[in-house]
Design a protein that fits this description.
The protein has 307 residues and is an alpha/beta fold. The chain has ten helices and eight strands. β7 and β8 form a beta hairpin. α2 runs parallel beside α3, α2 packs across α8 and α4 packs parallel to α5. It is globular. The chain binds NADP nicotinamide-adenine-dinucleotide phosphate (NAP). NADP nicotinamide-adenine-dinucleotide phosphate binds next to α2.
């Protein structure tokens, strides 16, 4: 029996995933959040495929370890840039550094992500999860966009989540001041905002040979949520940990989406790992997408760059 459309993602997770043997020798890939989980496994798979890597990470010690490990194992060029994505000023500095050092960018993978059980605010006045998961990747992508267009064909991949299905996006309360904070909904809001802006950007990039897609990396065992209190950490580690998969499946899926020749012209699409999937209805509202896009440009100070 086929599941109803809104539950199709459960069935898709069980389907055999696509892989590619295509190489990425010499291709320059910018990857955020490579120090753990999904990002670490993506970095490993990209290095194995021959890519040159620029890892944008907040923890320089962890990043240096990954850099040394990958250089030793695969002999690739692996560079590191430091940026905390809860600070948009640091994202701007990282983008400036990338533009100054890399005249050609083949791939941008926005992977950094966070889940908080309690409301936290950034120094710049944003709700942390919304800032780290959406605003920071939105800003980085836009600051690198001209370079990606000049480097075309090139690909942008947003590491999104089935968590977008939790909803929670309220344009009149992006800081959760009026509503009681709910971690899963705040996570859902950030991922919904990111997805909505993918459709807008895909449309804007039509004809440029720059693609932008979003993917859910699978339910995998990582450090996500481990910044929360002991009760949540116990729940994550012991109650649901055994159900989660090895994040090397995420690395393989990400590699397929950015390396496979058959993906070269695919844009504006959501994938469950490598299976094309329909997102939740609220994440397909193009009117809402235009509004969150304009708000995100304003909040990140991009408006003057884009006009
Ligand atoms: N795990 C899953 O089952 C799952 C499911 C759906 C979607 N996802 C998505 O997959 C992506 C990766 O998550 P993960 O599961 O691999 O979690 P993870 O193991 O916690 O990795 C998150 C990465 O993001 C970095 N990061 C977190 N906050 C940051 C900040 N303020 N500034 C810069 N970097 C920051 C972390 O750096 P540190 O090492 O310094 O902490 C780490 O490199 C996220 O976008 C997440 O939403 C994961």
């Amino acid at each position: 029996m086929r599941l109803p459309e809104e539950l199709q993602f459960i069935e898709n997770a069980r389907l055999p995933q696509k892989t590619t043997q295509a190489r990425m020798d010499g291709k320059l890939c910018i990857l955020t959040g490579a120090t753990s989980g999904v990002g670490y496994h993506a970095a490993k798979r990209l290095a194995q495929g021959g890519a040159r890597l620029v890892l944008v990470c907040r923890n320089p010690h962890k990043a240096a370890q990954v850099q040394a490990e990958l250089q030793h194992a695969y002999g690739n060029q692996v560079d590191v840039l430091q940026a905390d994505f809860s600070r948009l000023d640091e994202v701007r500095i990282a983008a400036k550094g990338i533009l100054a050092s890399y005249p050609h960018i083949d791939v941008l993978i926005n992977n950094v992500g966070l889940h908080n059980t309690h409301r936290m605010m950034t120094n710049e006045g944003f709700e942390s999860v919304f800032c780290v998961n959406h605003l920071a990747s939105f800003l980085l992508t836009h600051l690198l966009l001209d370079r990606m267009v000049a480097s075309a064909p090139s690909r942008i991949l947003q590491i999104n989540s089935q968590g977008h299905r939790f909803g929670g996006l309220d344009l009149s309360d992006l800081t959760w001041q009026r509503r009681k904070y709910h971690g899963l909904q705040a996570y859902g809001a950030s991922k919904t905002a990111q997805l909505l802006t993918v459709w807008e950007l895909a449309e804007r990039l039509r004809g440029t040979e720059v693609t932008i897609n979003a993917m859910h990396p699978g339910e995998v065992r990582t450090n996500i949520g481990m910044n929360n209190g002991p009760v949540y950490r116990f729940y994550q580690r012991y109650l649901i940990g055994w159900m989660l998969k090895n994040p090397n499946i995420s690395g393989e899926a990400i590699y397929y989406l950015v390396a496979a020749p058959e993906m070269a012209a695919v844009s504006g699409t959501f994938f469950n790992q490598t299976i094309e999937e329909k997102p939740a209805t609220h994440a397909l509202d193009r009117e809402l997408g235009k509004r969150i896009g304009a708000i995100s440009e304003q909040l990140t100070g991009l408006t003057h760059v884009l006009t």
